[in-house]
Structure formats: C-alpha cells, structure tokens
Amino acid sequence: METRINWMGTEVGSKWAKYIISSNKVIADSALPKAVQELVKIRASQINGCGGCLDMHTKDATAAGESTVRINLVGAWRETTVYTEAERAALELTEQGTRLADSSGVSDEAWANAAKHYDDDQLVALVALICTINAFNRLNVITRTPGGDYQPGQQFI
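Given the sequence above, the corresponding structure tokens read:
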C-alpha cells in the first residue's frame, strides 16, 4: 500500500492536525477512564478499517498496561467476559456512533445505558472522542496512511 499524500507535509494538513490534536488533548485529560478511551479508539478503527490508527492505539494501549486479551477481543466484546458494563456501554455507543449510515443513528437505549455509567462531562468526552477518532480514521483511510511503523508515544507535531 502506498500513501496517496503526506497530509502532514502540507500547510493545511499540519494546521488542521494541530487543532484536532489539541482537541484530543481535552478528551485525554478528561475524567473519561483512559482504558475506555483506548478501547473506543481501537473499536472505531476496526470498524473503519484504519490500519494506521489500529497500529497506534493497540500499541499505545499495550504500553499503558492494557492486557493483550482485552485488546485482542475488542472486536468481539459482546461475546466476552473481560469488559465492565461501563466499557460495554462505551463500546456500544462507539459502534452506533461510527456506523451512522447503517441504522437510524444512536438508539435511545444505547444513550441511556452510557448515561448510567458516565456523568455529563464524561459523556461529552466520550462523544467527542468517537467524533475525533472517526475523523482520524477517515483521513487515514482516504489518504492510505499505512499502519505498522508507529512507536508508542511518537509525536506527530
């Protein structure tokens, strides 16, 4: 696979990246649990087929101490016993928020379930995270940014 364009090497791409990465810092610094943040990034990236983001977030999750079992089972979270109810609620919201065209959007049930586990600030962080990772996924898939070379903690700017 060959990258179509080095979007970070362009004036617009590097400016855009600074804004979206700074918005992601707000989410990263929120009270939304770090494990949930990585699981959400991994699940959305699986759905969107984003190798670059899967490479980054599985490696970052591992470096942060997440177990291999939990990382490997994210795609089949419904059929496992390794996630909390709160994590399951976040993964369901992630799936519905990522697959908007596949249904009528996010169900009231999925929203209510997430709201049982997260306060308003955490819910906003969760929704913002789903939006942000989907933006990165789409950018990387459209430009064919490959996975495989990421090193945990690598800075892009």
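The chain has a mean pLDDT of 93. Try to locate this feature in the token string yourself.
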